[in-house]
Structure formats: structure tokens, C-alpha cells
Amino acid sequence: MKIYTRTGDAGQTGVIGGRVDKDDARVEAYGTVDELNCFLGQAMGFMAAKRELYTDLLADMLQVQHELFDCGHDLAVLKQEARPYKVNAGMVDNLETWIDKYDAETPDITRFILPGGSQVSSALHVCRTVCRRAERRVVTLARTQPINEEVRRYLNRLSDLFFTIARTANHREGESDVEYVRSGEVFRRK
């Protein structure tokens, strides 16, 4: 099988149910999800270097990588009749379960947290911000074209998970989160 097809040389690409311009809002949305998946792979590479601290997170993040492919699939569907959606409410519920589980490991926070700390935490904060951008691209797409609404919910919750596990990574590695000190307390204690 050849990697190149030459079918996109004129500036269009195939999606499920047709062809669109490569700068179409749909392509921008699933392309940003793909970018997020790449950054998550990088973060997982950093975790693998300290596997004993991250065995559970590595397994969970591998599942997230598969689910991000599912998000990309659903975003590439022009009409739902072309192929059934893959992302569902149960996937969002699972993210919430993980958020609660990993949040329980970390100390209470009252202020915003600056990105950083350990290498793993820093990489997960990059994932969080790329995830938020992917969510914004999906919001833009949904203004003009039909989408699986569960993808938007999934990405919204996933960015919360990345924030939580970035803090978990710092905690597991003995790094303190750096609070943003130029504001008052914004979070309630648990």
C-alpha cells in the first residue's frame, strides 16, 4: 500500500460521506483532535520513563487515545446516516470517574495553577490547552454543520481530566503545583 494518494493535491480531502476543502471547519476540528492525540502520546512517553509511578495513567491514557480517534471519526462524518457515531455519553461518564479518582490523590487547591512542575505535568498541561482549542474548533463547526454533540462534551470533560492528572503527576513526583498568586481564592475547598 502506498502512503501517498495524490487525491489531496488540489486542496480537498475525503471525509465520511464526501470531500471537503482541507481548511474546512470539519477538517480543522478533527485535525486539532489528531494534534491533541500526538501531544498525549508524547506525555505518555514521559510517563513510560517512570512507569512505576504511572502504570494506571498509562492504561487510562491509552484508552483516551483510542477515544480521540473515535472523536476524529465522528467529526469526519458529514451526515450521520453515512456511518453511526462512536462517541457516547458513557465515555464522558468514564472521564468524570477518572477525574474524581485522580483528584482524590491531590491536595486541595484554592487558586489557579500555573502550568509546569514535572516533565509529565508540563506535557499534560499542553494536552489540556490543545484539548481546549479542539473544543473551540468543534464549537465553530457545530454552528454551521451537524456534529455528534457527545464529542463536544467529551472534549470539555477531557480537558478537566488533563488538568487533574497534571496535578496528580506533580504530586506523585513530589513536585508542588505553582499557584497563581496575583488573584484571590477561586476554588472551594473539597
TrEMBL record:
Record's keyword terms, sorted: ATP-binding, Cobalamin biosynthesis, Nucleotide-binding, Transferase
Name the UniProt record assigns to this protein: Corrinoid adenosyltransferase
Pfam families per record: Cob_adeno_trans (PF01923)
Catalytic activity: 2 cob(II)yrinate a,c diamide + reduced [electron-transfer flavoprotein] + 2 ATP = 2 adenosylcob(III)yrinate a,c-diamide + 2 triphosphate + oxidized [electron-transfer flavoprotein] + 3 H(+); 2 cob(II)alamin + reduced [electron-transfer flavoprotein] + 2 ATP = 2 adenosylcob(III)alamin + 2 triphosphate + oxidized [electron-transfer flavoprotein] + 3 H(+)
Segments forming domain Cobalamin adenosyltransferase-like: 3-169
InterPro entries to which the protein is assigned, alphabetical: CblAdoTrfase-like (IPR016030), CblAdoTrfase-like_sf (IPR036451), PduO-typ (IPR029499)
EC number assigned by the record: 2.5.1.17
Pathway: Cofactor biosynthesis; adenosylcobalamin biosynthesis; adenosylcobalamin from cob(II)yrinate a,c-diamide: step 2/7
Annotated source species: Gordoniibacillus kamchatkensis
UniProt enzyme class: transferase
Family assignment from sequence similarity: Belongs to the Cob(I)alamin adenosyltransferase family.
